[in-house]
Automatic annotation (TrEMBL):
This is Nucleoside diphosphate kinase. It comes from the Bacteria. Its EC number is 2.7.4.6. Belongs to the NDK family. GO terms for molecular function: ATP binding; nucleoside diphosphate kinase activity. The keyword RNA-binding does not apply. Residues 3-65 form the Nucleoside diphosphate kinase-like domain. Keywords: ATP-binding, Kinase, Nucleotide-binding, Transferase. InterPro entries: NDK-like_dom, NDK-like_dom_sf.
Length: 66
């Protein structure tokens, strides 16, 4: 069986509302396993670069909100 990986981001508003634990519980309840976690703060340039390939595809709103 092939191993699949995915990447997720917990947005700043969820961190401020102390939802990280609840989000992890939902991930694990779905049968997924968190194998790594890292908390970072992106500046505007980093956020723009990260989302550049998705700009205009996913939402009518700006994808970055610093």
């Amino acid at each position: 069986m092939a191993i699949e990986r995915t990447f997720s981001i917990i947005k700043p508003d969820a961190v401020k509302r102390n939802l990280i634990g609840a989000i992890y519980q939902r991930i694990e309840a779905a049968g997924l396993r968190v194998v790594g976690a890292k908390m970072v703060h992106l500046n505007e340039e980093q956020a723009s670069g990260f989302y550049a390939e998705h700009e205009g595809k996913l939402s009518s709103r700006p994808l970055k909100n610093l």
